[in-house]
Every structure is written in C-alpha cells, then in structure tokens.
Design goal:
Distance between the termini: 31 Å
Strand content: 5-15%
Strand order of the largest sheet: 4-3-2-1-5
Largest sheet: 5 strands, antiparallel
C-alpha cells in the first residue's frame, strides 16, 4: 500500500469541498477562511495551497505573493493554519475546477490520429476548390500564396489556434497536406516544424472581411469550415479544450443559417445540425432576430472577436487565457513545464534551463517566477547561461540570434532525459507553449529552429518520431 501523501489527500479534500453545492453559497472571505486551514507546510518551510484553477500555489516568503507551482510529490508535509487573509485570486470560483482536460504534448513523437488527419484532408480538399475571388485571403498571408482561398486558411488557422503547442514532426501528414498551398517553407527543418500560434483575431478577420463586403453567405461558410475543423480536432486532447471553445464561438452564427448556405459545401457533417435549425425559417443577415448574430454582422474585427469570446462558457476559461490574460497564460505554461519535468530529480532546476532560453533584457522574468524557480534561474544567470547574457551566441551551424527575440544559445549543462516518448513530447510541448506565451506577453519572437533546450531534446528523440499514436483519443 503506498504511503499517505498529504498533497494528494488535501487535493481530494478541496475538490470535494468545491464540488459541494454549499460552496457556491459561501462568500469569498468564507471560502478563503476554509482554504487557509488546509495549507500545507513542507520541512523546508514552503507553504502550499491547492486553490484556483484546481492547481497548487506556493507562497513566496520574500513578498507574500502566491505563485502557481506544482509541488514535488513524495515529500513530507503537514497541515497548518494560515493567519494572513488569502487573496481572492487563489480562491476557487467553482467552474475553474471543471476545466476541460487537455494535454501538453507536442506533436513530436506521438502522431496525430490517422482518422483525424484523413477527415481534415477531405475538408481541406473541399475548401481548396473555392475561388479566391469569393474567399480572398485576408489573414495568414505569411503562410499561403495569394491565390489560395481563405477557406484553406480557415482550416489551417483552426488547427494552429486550437493546438496547445503547434510543434510538429517534420513529416506529420496533418501539416504536409497543406504543401501545395504554401508560399514558402514552414519554420523549422525536416525534423521539427516550430509553427506560429495565430491569435484568434486572424480567424475573426477571415469572417469579418466577408461581412463588411456584404457577403454574408461566404462569411457563414467560413465559420462552418472552422466549426467542421474544430469538431474533428476534438478527437485529440492536444486540441480539445480550444476546439470546444471555438465551437461555442461560431455556433450562434450557424444556428440561424439557411440550408442553402451550406448544401453541398462541406463533408464532415457538422453543418447538417445547423441546417436542421435553419429549417425553422430563422433569418440570416443584419436583420436576424438573434442579437448575437446582429452583432456579428456589424463586421468590425475587434467587436466580432469580443462577441465570440463572450460566448465561451466559464469552464473553458483557461483555454482562452492566451487571448484574455497573457500574463496568467504564461504562468500556467510554466506550471505545465515544471509538471512535465516531474521525472527529474529537481523539476524547478530542470525548468530553469528552458526558462534560460528566453530573452529578458528588461529583467521581467524573475519577478514572475516562484522563489524556487527564481533561485535556479538566477544561478544560471550568474553563470552567464540565460538569454540576455548569451545574446551574442549562435547555434553550432551559425544560425543567427535575432535581437529582442528568444535566445538560441547552447543549452545549459543540466541534461533533461525523459524516460519515454510521451514524457519527451510533454516537455517539448510545455516548453514550446511557454516560449510562445512569453512572446505573446513581451513581444519576443520564437526562433525558426526552436529554443536551444528544446532543440537539444529533439536531437535525442528524432529516431523515434514515427512511433504509433497513443494516448490522445
């Protein structure tokens, strides 16, 4: 029988409390008081709280702030009271404990399911037959040739926006099927494609432009392409949380569409449900009785984006942090990275080697880290192993470092050796998502060949990239 684990027991206790209907009737101060009695202390004096977002928080002894941080398991801890009032931000609201489970794995190693790829290939083929005159390319121009219809961009954009970390095997069929539409080679090399994660605004722009042009039927078809693609992506947990969020954004437009707006257009079958709704005679266009659809037809990009985001249920809030709160999104990706490195003897020290790849000329990073990560990062900084101090370094093949971007300096000495392919994919995914989140927060650019520590890990597993897909259906 495994030994009693205070962290596991406390987590179960808090989850049971939050699931109790009485939790919602408590005021926030009362909830905070109940939680404070369940704070754990480890032998090194660290204080831990299982709170908001169903995640652990670590108290910084220097300034009293609580940071998202996964604890080390198999560490002795005891439950103590906490006299200081807990901040509202760490107190569970309830819906944040029902977030859609996802996966931090990149698409390097474990392949995308064949059935998913085939369905998207069929959707892409149908989308590629549209005319670029009816569907002009108003976003993703850095990816596709100018004569590619925006229906193709809608499929691509949905895949990339829904992916937790869009790093793919160089031979991943889900990516290679777009080859004929590309205007230039994708970032990365034949081993890994480190692809950009588009903002939601890029998808919105495709639809909003057609609305402004008075082409509501084309706008609805673009929304249906996104919905069809998102529905297919639900098969893989690496896409699922944001795919669900995107479906809730575009559904109101499609529910009021007429059957003739979609007949014969797409192949996945999702739009047939909207055709059934349309048989009730719901109008489409600016005069629609649906307030949400009328707002959509105003055609303003920023306004349409906000309208879409407002439709997403609270339980999917974490999937939208990249859009609504880049600061919080970054802290969650750091949490994911430390958690993915749990096989290491010292996960925070291992995570610091990936954080060291980030360019931080304004010294914004340390204050965003918990004290364990901060100490490990500062130790690397003193050794000249962080992005700012390595700003003049290059990869062995001479790949240039872009000023103000992310460092591609040689990886620090600490070796990260995942025990299996799934663990390696989780580390790569979390690390790449962290780099993208840092770029979203600070404006830094991700190098086309990936971050140094990620690239070093890839070189260890490239011979395993064609393994059979497991664990994502």
């Amino acid at each position: 029988m495994p030994p009693w684990d205070a962290f596991t027991a406390t987590e179960a206790e808090v989850r049971a409390m939050v699931a109790d209907p009485r939790w919602q009737r408590l005021s926030v101060p009362d909830r905070a008081h109940v939680l404070a009695a369940r704070i754990l202390v480890t032998p090194d004096g660290d204080r831990w709280l299982f709170g908001a977002h169903a995640r652990w928080h670590l108290l910084d002894p220097a300034d009293g702030r609580w940071h998202l941080a996964p604890p080390a398991r198999r560490v002795r801890a005891r439950q103590v009271g906490h006299a200081t009032t807990l901040p509202d931000a760490v107190v569970p609201l309830g819906y944040d404990f029902h977030a859609e489970p996802g996966s931090t794995q990149a698409f390097v190693g474990p392949d995308v399911p064949g059935s998913l790829t085939e369905q998207l290939r069929v959707l892409l083929r149908s989308s590629g037959r549209k005319s670029e005159l009816d569907y002009p390319l108003t976003a993703f121009g850095e990816i596709f040739a100018s004569d590619v219809p925006s229906t193709v961009a809608a499929v691509w954009g949905t895949i990339m926006w829904c992916a937790y970390a869009p790093a793919f095997d160089g031979n991943e069929r889900l990516i290679t099927v777009f080859g004929e539409y590309l205007c230039r080679p994708l970032p990365g090399d034949e081993w890994v494609r480190w692809l950009p994660a588009p903002p939601l605004l890029d998808l919105v722009t495709l639809v909003a432009e057609r609305l402004r042009a008075g082409r509501s039927r084309q706008a609805l078809r673009l929304a249906a392409v996104m919905a069809d693609a998102a529905q297919i992506l639900l098969l893989d947990t690496r896409f699922r949380p944001r795919a669900l969020a995107l479906l809730t954004m575009v559904e109101p437009m499609l529910r009021t569409a007429r059957p003739e707006d979609f007949r014969g257009e797409f192949t996945s079958g999702l739009h047939s449900a909207y055709q059934d709704n349309a048989d009730n005679g719901s109008p489409t266009g600016p005069q629609s009785r649906s307030p949400e659809l009328r707002r959509d037809f105003q055609g303003d990009d920023a306004g349409l984006r906000e309208a879409w985001l407002e439709r997403v249920p609270a339980r999917l809030c974490r999937a939208l942090l990249t859009e609504n709160d880049p600061e919080a999104h970054f802290t969650h990706t750091v949490y994911d990275l430390v958690e993915a490195l749990s096989f290491m003897p010292d996960p925070p020290a291992a995570a610091a080697t990936f954080l060291a790849d980030l360019s931080d000329s304004r010294h914004l990073l340390p204050e965003r880290l918990d004290h364990r990560l901060r100490m490990a990062y500062e130790e690397l900084a003193r050794a000249g192993r962080v992005g700012t101090s390595a700003a003049d370094s290059t990869e062995p093949d001479g790949f240039p470092v872009r000023t103000g971007g992310l460092s591609v300096a040689p990886a620090p000495v600490l070796e990260v050796a995942p025990p299996d392919r799934a663990s390696a994919a989780a580390v790569l995914g979390a690390a790449y998502a962290m780099g993208l989140a840092w770029g979203r927060l600070t404006g830094a650019k991700v190098p086309e060949r990936g971050l140094a520590s990620q690239s070093a890990l890839v070189r260890k597993i490239v011979h395993e990239r064609d393994d059979h897909h497991t664990g994502h259906i």
